[in-house]
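Field guide to reading this record: the first block holds the primary sequence, the second block holds the structure written as discrete tokens, and the final block holds curator observations. Each block starts with its own label. This record concerns DUF4760 domain-containing protein, catalogued under organism Nonomuraea thailandensis.

BLOCK 1 — SEQUENCE
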Amino acid sequence: MVPSALLSVVSPIVAIAIAVWGFRRSTKADRLRAFFEVQDRYLAPSVRDGRRVLHQDVADLRPHEVAALDKASLSSAGYALAVMNSVAIACEGGYVERELILRSMGHSFVRTLNAARPLIDHVEKLRGYRPYPAAERLAQQLALTLEVPVPKSTASARTVEGRVDGGS
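BLOCK 2 — STRUCTURE
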């Protein structure tokens, strides 16, 4: 084969291989960058305050007792849950790797969602739909992987099968 013909055949193959390698590397770096942004939001003082409210003020309540909490506590807890729902949406969309979430905040995420059940159930009764569904799905998946018990909700939470690491 003539060297110029060989070059014309090999050159596009090499270009495609380099493009695929670069795209894959870029995608992984983008997911890691997205993880750090999500983690920063999860660890922000206002979100930590909301998670603290959920653990200290909400966890032991019944859904109808949640309405007695002060507006600032409800707002803080709701904001924390909204951020957690965003974390879960990023996982579901493939923007953040679940394994990183599992290792960095898995236990905290599951325990916080467990503590938030009375508030979530209360909001569902008020609004007629279950808020923060992505966060609940992710917490259930993480709980399966971590083998952490998830209490039954008093309302109709959806169940999720499967583990974060792909097992069943």
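BLOCK 3 — OBSERVATIONS
The chain has a mean pLDDT of 84.
The two ends are 53 Å apart (CA to CA).
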